[in-house]
């Protein structure tokens, strides 16, 4: 009896998580895959017809927006690594007893809703706003200069909005590095630069990887930043999907585009993992 | 690849991982096959048509209303800023009838509202609202076609019969007010910020003026922007054909390519206009007035000489409403001349009750100081009581004969707004 219980325990422990995934991930994914192959309209209903056209037409019409989203996603992720790594490094190694205070400060803006934060950026960056107003009155930038409605504004917004999700995993990886390893490096006459490049950096890579996973994916599929900060030529694939779902009620095309995006992101992540040499992506991300 | 860190043991330790096995890949493939098998689940729809004869309409009305009684409560879903926040009209209604009103400003835009209520309506369940305000257009048509709206019993709408303006009794989207009576109408025209625009815009050409490069706002809604494109090429939207749409789209594309358009807005254009991010923009009449009142801005609104768009927000009762009798009483209550006047005084959209003008003028005569000035402004405002000259230039959204036609229309204009 007790042996039976023991052998059942892992399954029982897994049960809530599995159920959660089944209800909120597997079923919607299957429904969406199904929808992407259906045809019809809202009034007369949709039926499953192996309608591959939704993929062909969707990608044919919106490939520019897909590519733009991937480019924005990559650039914003790189910016986040460049900004985030020093911050994570500093908190992990120089934070001392105040580490948790710094982490709290890092997360503080994120107690405010995502959309509100983006809108406050809109205020800050507006043509005659807090940033550009004084610069223009000093004559430092031309009168018709603007930041909003440019790619830079959207990429900046993406980088800003997802930054903590980049910093936290990197911090965790760096914080976990045993100080004795660093001492050993010094004992072996490694210079500070060498210690960093050959000990700290490699050991932090799983954190960077997890950070990229947690920021690149939502940044690429985001639609808030493009709609609040962007202009006429910054539409991302997330905006298109939202528009197809809600405005056009073209559920098949919207689902097909979602699946295309998902496939591209998965391919991208596995390729990235391969390039880094880490193949079991999920395991790395979980650490 | 000659990577210097490849040979580094520390790096290897951090990165060497178990491979994704062939069996795992098969398992994934099996999962997706199972998915396809499950994929039989379609989305239900059910097309119905408008009643073809008045006898049929009457029988549908009787079928819906028989056995329905007053319950003493009504849940009312409306758009934000569509009633004085103190809700004096509703208080008066409760006083007169004993019916309590739960008023919620939950409708922010038609697409998301439709998406929210559609599953419940499709399942024949209550959406928790007995009365909702729906803009004419695609989603209104779909609510009708899907049979989600209750046919109105006009014997319960005496005020509407007596006080509504004739043009609101035979609107193209709901002839004979079978499913809806108007809440308020509005116009789409050009709003501008006089701080940046010296010569007041008068025509569509101003939206194409290279002088305003990067400072013009347009709307992302296909129907709204299409009408402006059509006005710009001198075509009446009511009579437009697919060839006209293509021409209008080319005109709009030209405006976009010249860098004149700053952004295609869904609705948040008043803030950028007040801040000077854009100088002139497509706009809804009431928005401009309300922005001026709430933030003390001095934005202006004009109906361009080529034309503007008129649209109507309509009170409707979902078929699954639990308190339809209370709801229809409230609908009729808003057609009381005094109530309509008070409502228009606050919201500043076009009222469907023309007699309200005299009431507002009379109120203005009694009032003093700032109130007097404000009321006089409302009574004489072309936004609330459009002049005949303006009215003659106002047009409806483009109407579609088939869903295919509409799809074509959307794809023509969205190619401009979402690229």
UniProtKB/TrEMBL annotation, chain A:
The chain crosses the membrane at residues 12-35, 70-91, 103-125, 145-174, 195-217, 254-273. GO terms for biological process: transmembrane transport. It is a multi-pass membrane protein. One of its GO terms (cellular component) is plasma membrane. It comes from the Bacteria. Residues 66-272 form the ABC transmembrane type-1 domain. Keywords: Cell membrane, Membrane, Transmembrane, Transmembrane helix, Transport. InterPro entries: MetI-like (IPR000515), MetI-like_sf (IPR035906). Pfam families: BPD_transp_1 (PF00528). It is found in: Cell membrane. Coiled coil: none annotated. Belongs to the binding-protein-dependent transport system permease family. CysTW subfamily. This is ABC transporter permease. The lineage of its organism: Bacteria, Bacillati, Actinomycetota, Actinomycetes, Streptosporangiales.
